[in-house]
Every structure is written in structure tokens, then in C-alpha cells.
Amino acid sequence: MTIRPGINSGRDGICLITGGCRSGKSRHALRLAEKAGEKRLFIATAPVLDEEMRERVARHQAVRQRLGWETWEEEHDLAGAFHRVAEQGKYDVVLCDCLTLWVNNLLYGASQDGITLEEDEMARRARELCNVARGIPAKVLFVTNEVGQGIVPADAISRRFRDLAGRCNQEVAAMADSVILMVSGIPVVISS
In CATH, which superfamily holds the domain spanning 13-191? Predict the structure, then answer.
């Protein structure tokens, strides 16, 4: 696969890669990142809740490590993680996978604290994340799921999650230098 000039081929900038589950988002993001530089950081947002997930995470980490990736686990404070990236200043490319799980983690944490995570707060956090990410001298790729193309969820918490994820995606897309929609493993540039 070749990257068209001007479509996420420069060293700096933010690219959002979105699409449905198993659409090839992460694989495409890894390919783009590996072309962007040799000093690579992967920021993972997935909570490890069971043995199957633990094995999946370990497999993915082992593959990335063989390819020269460093991995950080950060479920909640992505802006803080990007501040640490900025302080270190040693990466060519940072790949964060994925924003959808980040939204899930924030929603779950808020509900555990008896708080309702509102869309305005999610938008603020997404803008803060992008502002910090824009300030680092590295290519930044965010992976997210497109969750709004299916049926309306039947319960309130699922609808809230869909709304929060959609709002996060809109904010990041608006601040990104390029946006790619993955469809059946094929990248479709929707903004550059």
C-alpha cells in the first residue's frame, strides 16, 4: 500500500483512523506508523479484564516489541500520557489504540463514582488530548470505532456510550490533519 503525498505522509500531525469492528483500523494504523519512523510508541487503552484479553494483549505486545515498538498502558489519562511523551521528546510516531475504549473507561469510572459523564465533558477531554498531541514533535495516530452506523441501542447506558464515543470522534476528527475510514480492510481518505 502506498500513501498518497499529503495524506498523513509527513512526520508531524494527527491522523484519526476510524471504522467498524474488525475493519482493519489497527493493522492500517500500525503500517502507517511503521513508515513514519523508527522510534515508535504504542499507547494502549484496553483494560485487561479476563484471561482471553490478557493473552490477546500479550500476543499483540510481543509482535510490536519484535518490530521495535515501546508500549504504554493508559486507560484514563491520555492527555497525561501525551504530556509525558512531550517531556521525553524521543518518539517519531505515537499510535493510540483506541479512543473508543478510552471513552468506555471514562464512562465506567464516572459511573463508579456516581457521576454522569456528559457530552460536553467528553468533548473537552478530546480537545485537550488533541491540543497536547499537536504539541509533540511526532506523528500521532488515533484509532477509534465508528459506533453510530448501527441500530439505536436498547438501553440508556449503551446509548450514552454511543453518544460519548460519537462526540469524541467528532472532536478529534475536527482537529485532525487527516481522517481515514476503514471499510473491509480498505482505507478511504475522508479528510486530508
Answer: P-loop containing nucleotide triphosphate hydrolases (3.40.50.300)
User: Strand pairing of 139-143 and 13-19?
Assistant: parallel
DSSP state of 67: T
Element (H, E) at 114: none
Q: How far apart (Å, rounded) are the C-alpha atoms in residues 142 and 169?
A: 10
**Global pTM exceeds 0.70:** yes
Candidate list 28, 60, 76, 83, residue with the active-site label: 60
Distance (Å, rounded) from C-alpha 92 to C-alpha 53? 29
How far apart are alpha carbons 91 and 137 in whole angstroms?
A: 8
Task: Quickly list DSSP for 98-161.
Answer: -HHHHHHHHHHHHHHTT----HHHHHHHHHHHHHHHHTSSSEEEEE----TTSPPPSSHHHHHH
**pLDDT tens digits along 53-103:** 888 878 877 777 778 899 999 999 999 999 999 999 999 999 999 999 999
What's the rounded Cα separation, in Å, for the pair 133 and 136?
Answer: 6
Q: How far apart are CA 9 and CA 132, in angstroms?
A: 21
The conformational region for residue 88 under phi > 0 = left, psi -120 to 50 = alpha, else beta, is alpha
Is 76 one of the annotated active-site residues of the chain? no
Cα–Cα dist 159/171, whole Å: 18
The β-bridge partners of 97 are 44, 143
